[in-house]
Amino acid sequence: MTESLSKLEARRIALTAQGFAEPRPVNAEADDVRAVIDRLGLIQLDSVNVCVRAHFMPFFSRLGSYPMELLDDGACKRFDMFEFWGHVASLIPVEQYPLFRHRMEDGRNRRSRTLRSADAEYLALILDEIRQRGPLTIGELEDPGKRSGGGASPGWWNRAPGKVALEYHFATGDLTSVERRGFSRVYDLPERVIPPELLDCEPVSRTEAHREFLRIAARAYGIGTGADLADYYRIRMPEVRPRLAELVEAGEILQVDVESWDQPAYLHPDASTNGAVNARAILSPFDSLIWERDRTKRLFDFFYRIEIYVPERKRQYGYYVLPFLLGEELVARVDVKAERERGTLRVRGAFIEEGQDPVRVAPELASELVLMADWLGLKRVRVGQRGNLCSTLREALR
Fold first, then answer.
1. Residue 188: which H helix or E strand, with range?
2. How far apart are alpha carbons 223 and 261 in whole angstroms?
3. HEC sequence for 313-363
4. Of 252, 247, 68, residue with least CA distance to 55
5. Which end of the chain is less congested by CB atoms within 10 angstroms, N or C?
6. Per-residue pLDDT, 155
7. 317 within 8 A of 335, measured Cβ to Cβ
8. Are strands 344-352 and 380-386 parallel, antiparallel or unpaired?
């Protein structure tokens, strides 16, 4: 008989698996950052820097104020990570490198079909330049080229040829990246940065790689539908279904029902279902707790979308809106911007969810915003006029 869970139980499992049931360390250090990486399996990257780079925020949400220099441009080397296409562009523990070899081969097969001989010659030149000169960014190439028709095949070189060539080699595994300078990816030969026991090991089949991706996703999520688990590493559902069936049969993942979910759910056997969660965290749009928007709605009754690409006049909440987790609920959202030249964390809008008490929520949100401002090296928090929580939040900040 299939086990049934309430929505509250599923939510507690998800929060616990993602690290929100544990108290924050008093003084977070490198070991705490490493523990978050191991718990989540990968960290999403994004170029948006309205408040702070996306990959810094999941650690703040779970650890509170931690030394930002731990995740500076040397973070990959410090924590034995590499960058690749996991859940989109992601920082990934280097021990997962063999699991991505089939994706690199896919990249080679897919992209090679569009190449002409002159393109291949340029690709070889770029690869040889890095072999001779060492790790480079696009801006450090001797001849990065120009956009729009700068290469032999204008339809292929729709960006600067150097950038396209580097991305080609990155996607195929001929180059890798374990460092960023600013937000520019630094490309190098895998044999110079990936441990040989991982680079030269026996290939992992696509089937086994997918099984392992689903194991990691189930552990990191605690519970989710098949589509949820597939999305963690962006695997197509036709490839996921047979792997999930195998894992269920082996007892490595448990199939359960969740109240009001119209799809079967999959529970990690080690997931904790005990006790209430007393969390408080501002979340990045790219945090794995909420990056799958349908799952966020199912777990928290919280509809969320990032409105960066929505025309300003059509935005409901704002440009860069961060959900606020309090206890076991997503209770509010804030549109924030770090105005570094003014030393200010600007809250351009603050909105409380229907049914939540602003008198309870505002002081907790104010405390978290002050903590965030201090972590970012900003002196003050200022609240604007947009939203039904602004006036109460200003009073709490006073």
1. strand 184-188
2. 12
3. HHCCCCCCEEEEEEECEEEEEEEEEEEHHHCEEEEEEEEECCCCCHHHHHH
4. 68
5. N
6. 46
7. yes
8. parallel
pTM of the model: 0.94
- Mean pLDDT of successive 10-residue segments in the chain (398 residues)? 91 98 95 97 93 95 96 88 96 97 91 69 92 94 68 51 90 92 90 96 95 98 98 98 98 97 97 90 97 97 94 94 98 97 98 98 98 97 97 97
The pLDDT value recorded for residue 73 is: 78
CB proximity list for 257: less than 8 A, separation 6 or greater: 2, 3, 4, 5, 264, 265
CA distance 381 to 369: 7
- DSSP class of residue 114 equals T
Report how far residue 10's alpha carbon sits from residue 266's, in angstroms, rounded to the nearest whole number: 10
For residues 359 and 396, the answer to whether their CB atoms sit within 8 Å is no
The tokens of 106 are what? 């896919």
Question: Please, are residues 79 and 305 in contact by the beta-carbon 8 Å criterion?
Answer: no
Can you tell me which residue has the tokens 């080679």?
A: 108
> pLDDT tens for residues 156-191?
445 688 888 999 999 999 999 988 887 789 999 999
How many whole angstroms separate alpha carbon 130 and alpha carbon 168?
14
What are 61's two structure tokens?
A: 């949400």
Both structure tokens of 252: 């490595």
Report the distance separating Cα 314 and Cα 355, nearest Å: 25
Grouping H, G, I as helix, E, B as strand and the rest as coil, residue 260 is: coil
In the prediction, which pLDDT does 104 show?
95
Nearest residue to 136 via CA among 189, 187, 202: 187
CA–CA distance, 245 with 197 (Å, rounded to integer) = 31
DSSP-H helix ranges across 225-306: 226-232, 237-249, 293-300
Length of the chain, in residues: 398
Residue environment code for 112-148, b if the CB has 16+ CB neighbours within 10 A, otherwise e: eeebeeebeebbeebbebbeeeebbbbebbeebbeee
How many CB atoms sit inside 10 A of residue 155's CB? 8
Helices of type H across 113-249: 117-133, 161-172, 190-193, 196-199, 206-221, 226-232, 237-249
Rg of the chain over CA atoms, in angstroms? 22
Structure tokens at 296: 């966020």
**DSSP class of 311:** -
pLDDT of res. 30: 96
